[in-house]
Amino acid sequence: MSAPHPAILGIGTAAPEHPFSQEEALSLALELSPPANEDRRRQVELIYRRSGVESRGTEAAHSVCKDSGSNGAAHFSPASLACPSGPGTAARMAIYSQRAASLALRSTRAALEDAAVSPASITHLVSVSCTGFASPGWDLVLVDTLGLPRKVQRTNVGFMGCHAAINGLRVADAIARADSRARVLVCCTEICSVHFRYDARPDQVVANALFADGSGAAVVGAGAANLPRIASTSSRIIDGSRDQMGWAVGDHGFEMNLGIELPGTIQRHAGEWARSWLGEHSLAIEEVGSWAVHPGGPKILSAVAEALSIPGSSLDVSRRVLSSRGNMSSATVLFILEALRTTRDMRLPCVLMSFGPGITAEGLLLR
Question: CATH number of the domain that 346 lies in?
Fold first, then answer.
């Protein structure tokens, strides 16, 4: 007999309470890193306005860049000869540690409430993040503040990138399949804004224009038959794509590399991968009821729709989340899943799909 499929018992999300409009974000970017000439300025403005983002949460911007009374204000200041690249990585990590814990607490409280699960019943905690490091980290803040058991077993999924929510849910799925009594709390928390790049290269400006802050959480375990169940996960490393997306620790924050080839690579490979994986479960693309595709950007969503030969409208919820929240890295797909459920657009089977450094495609099937 095969083990029962664990269910997603509850979902919770949290974003900064006062999001920046994209126009405000553009003004701040021009203030912190003034373009060298008018042509560069127009290029930056064009990238921001074509990003597909209308507003997004940026904890670092609100708590540091615009708060002249904070100690951090001197860190995020306009580029100068003395400080051409902004604050150092240590200063950025200090902001990350503070802000990540606050968002993580809000999303996990919401997920526990949604699941009607007591913190005392949580057996495992999976923390997911690629935007900061600290040890002990915000996962211990969750244990202490939420009142999770002192014997809770913790796993960290670190530095994997935008697809890491699916990696975290895969860990939770494996734990819950092995022990039907397990209650696994997964929390994906990203503070992308602390890595604002004082850099005029187009891929760096694109990263500045897209990425935002947020936290998504889910509770996984055995549950009622009407709950969405994790039927399968899949992973595919796309050959020859290693240099098209990267995320490295630099002296002035983490440095994102985004290749212009990325949408084309996804368009060429995502369809074959998804059809092969879903076919193993006797499921055709046309039979998928809803899609929760991570919005790496507007071009990524268009590439996925073309690769899968599905209507562009199938990804409207992903586009709405990108527009209203920005790209929150690993947390984003949980925002999409929550939005699908809230708007009653979540029809099973549902496929979660994300892409990250590798290039790696990750998928999760809910039935």
Answer: 3.40.47.10
| Total number of domains constituting the chain | 1
313 within a domain of the structure (yes/no): yes
CA distance 325 to 332: 8
Question: Phi/psi class of residue 266: alpha, beta or left (left: φ > 0; alpha: ψ in -120 to 50)?
Answer: alpha
Contact criterion met (CB below 8 Å) for 355 and 361: yes
Residue 272 counted as domain residue: yes
- Domain range for residue 270? 230-366
213-236 as b/e: b if 16+ CB within 10 A: bbbbbbbbbbbeeebbbbbbbbeb
Which pair of tokens denotes residue 178? 């092995």
Residue 68, classed as helix, strand or coil, is coil
pLDDT in tens, 339-361: 999 988 899 999 999 999 989 99
> Are 326 and 212 within 8 A, CB to CB?
yes
How distant is the alpha carbon of residue 247 from its chain centre?
A: 14
269, 361 Cβ separation under 8 angstroms: yes
Instruction: Please give the model's pTM, rounded to 2 decimal places.
Output: 0.93
One-letter amino acid at 357 equals P
Q: Measured on CA atoms in the order 14, 16, 21, 27, is the torsion positive or negative?
A: negative
Rounded (10°) CA dihedral 31, 16, 361, 272: -100
> What's the N-to-C CA distance of the chain in angstroms?
19
Measuring CA to CA, how many Å separate 286 from each of 123, 274, 282, 283?
38, 12, 12, 8
Residue 107 DSSP label: H
**CA-derived radius of gyration, the chain:** 20
Residue 263 belongs to a domain: yes
Tell me the three state secondary structure of residue 95.
helix
Q: Give the integer Cα–Cα distance in Å for 290 and 279.
A: 17
CA-nearest of 204, 188, 126 to 338 is 188
pLDDT tens-place string over residues 278-316: 999 999 999 999 999 999 999 999 999 999 999 999 999
Query: What is the number of alpha carbons within 13 Å of residue 180 lying toward its C-beta?
Result: 6
Q: Is the residue at 237 inside a domain?
A: yes
